[in-house]
Design brief:
The chain is α/β, with parallel strands linked by helices and 385 residues long. The chain contains 15 helices and ten strands. The protein is globular.
């Protein structure tokens, strides 16, 4: 099942440039592979130090970073410019329902399951457009949405009503609509969690979930929404920290070359940016260090890793491990080449227009956030709760 994506190879000239870099220049590039969490309402000294030494692919915002809209807009403006030669993603988990880092006066959206119950693609498009307008107004350029997992297990403790629906075709149709509209409004989307986290009975934040489906069922059901998102041009995909013995008997999906490269990149034909879920989640961290996971995730085919807690010593150690592996292993160096090119391409697609933009002032934000039209969309969704 190969989706109609243009085949893209790493430009040879760029590859040679990377391999011939000085140690200092290499360090300045490796940070593009990291999206970092941090504590507080302003970028801390430690995050600025990481950006100066390694560069920085992006930052992820949580509720701990949010005070009020004008502060978020100023924070986003500053984060995007921590690495002058390549803008950083400013990213967030703003799905709706229980996974929403931005509360009122931002519009508070119902869970995505309401869209599935509605079966209304036009409603999904209205939601995505309003969501993108609010995110863009405060400088957020990457949203870890939509969830493309299928809610096939009612006992799933982590997905539940975050999923759009119980049927693969409904998730595929609504997910693709959300991707198209979010991105048409200038916010990069992220389909998650490949190759599917819907039919699990464990939470990967605390342990490694097991998925026991045969490959045929995964291709027929779980992969369908991801294929639809790829056809819709989704910019990024996030991997799941799940163990699927039928696909890889040794490694969790995030660390599996068979899954990340063999299935998502080669079989499904995804040519965008592949991101890991947070490497500090216990599904991985219980068995290996974050630096080990960072190296293994990039080797598997991820183009970036999330390290979210705000422990900058751990983030620095992960980057140091990536530097060492790049210097020591030519195959890994080529994998880093490819990841850097994919990151640059995605940033040129979504961040060019934001480079010169200034943060909106509080009065302008009040006119956008929680707009009456947006509240009506939320009310329309809530009727299906």
């Amino acid at each position: 099942m190969r989706v109609g994506a243009e085949e893209v190879s790493t430009p040879e000239l760029y590859r040679v440039k990377i391999q011939c870099m000085s140690p200092l220049a290499l360090r300045r590039q490796i940070g593009q592979l990291l999206i970092a969490g941090f504590n507080g309402a302003q970028p801390p000294v430690e995050l600025r130090s990481l950006a100066r030494e390694f560069g920085l692919g992006g930052a992820i915002l949580f509720a701990r970073n949010v005070e009020e809209p004008a502060q978020v807009a100023e924070l986003s403006f500053e984060l995007a410019r921590l690495t002058p030669d390549m803008p950083a993603w400013v990213s967030v988990d703003q799905e709706g329902g229980r996974v929403a880092r931005l509360k009122a006066p931002f519009t508070e959206w119902p869970p995505m399951a309401t869209l599935g119950r509605s079966g209304d693609t036009a409603l999904a498009e209205r939601f995505a457009r309003a969501l993108a307008v609010e995110l863009r107004s405060v400088g957020i350029t990457l949203d870890y949405a939509p969830v493309l997992d299928i809610h096939t297990n009612p006992k799933n403790p982590v997905i539940g009503d975050r999923a759009l629906a119980e049927k693969a075709r409904t998730v595929a149709d609504l997910g693709a609509a959300i991707v198209r509209v979010l991105q048409s409004e200038g916010v990069a989307a992220c389909g998650k969690h490949f190759p599917g986290h819907g039919d699990t009975s464990a939470d990967s934040h605390f342990e490694l979930p097991l998925v026991e489906h045969p490959p045929e069922l995964l291709r027929e059901r779980e992969f369908l929404p991801f294929a639809a998102a790829i056809a819709a041009g989704v910019a990024t995909m996030m991997t799941a920290h799940v163990f699927i013995p039928a696909l890889d008997e040794e490694r969790p999906a995030t660390l599996s070359k068979r899954i990340v490269t063999g299935l998502l990149r080669e079989e499904l034909g995804f040519q965008g940016v592949i991101l890991s879920d947070d490497l500090e989640m216990k599904a991985l961290a219980a068995e290996r260090s974050v630096p080990e996971s960072a190296v293994q995730a990039i080797a598997a085919g991820c183009d970036g890793v999330l390290v979210c807690s705000g422990n900058h010593d751990v983030q620095a150690a992960a980057l140091e491990a990536l530097v060492r592996e790049t210097e020591a292993d030519q195959a890994f160096s080529r994998r880093v080449d490819d990841a850097l090119v994919r990151n640059r391409r995605a940033k040129e697609r979504f961040l060019t227009a934001a480079i010169g933009a200034s943060p909106l002032n509080p009065a302008a934000l009040r006119r956008v956030l929680g707009h009456d039209d947006h509240k009506r969309i939320a009310d329309d969704m809530a009727r299906f709760a």
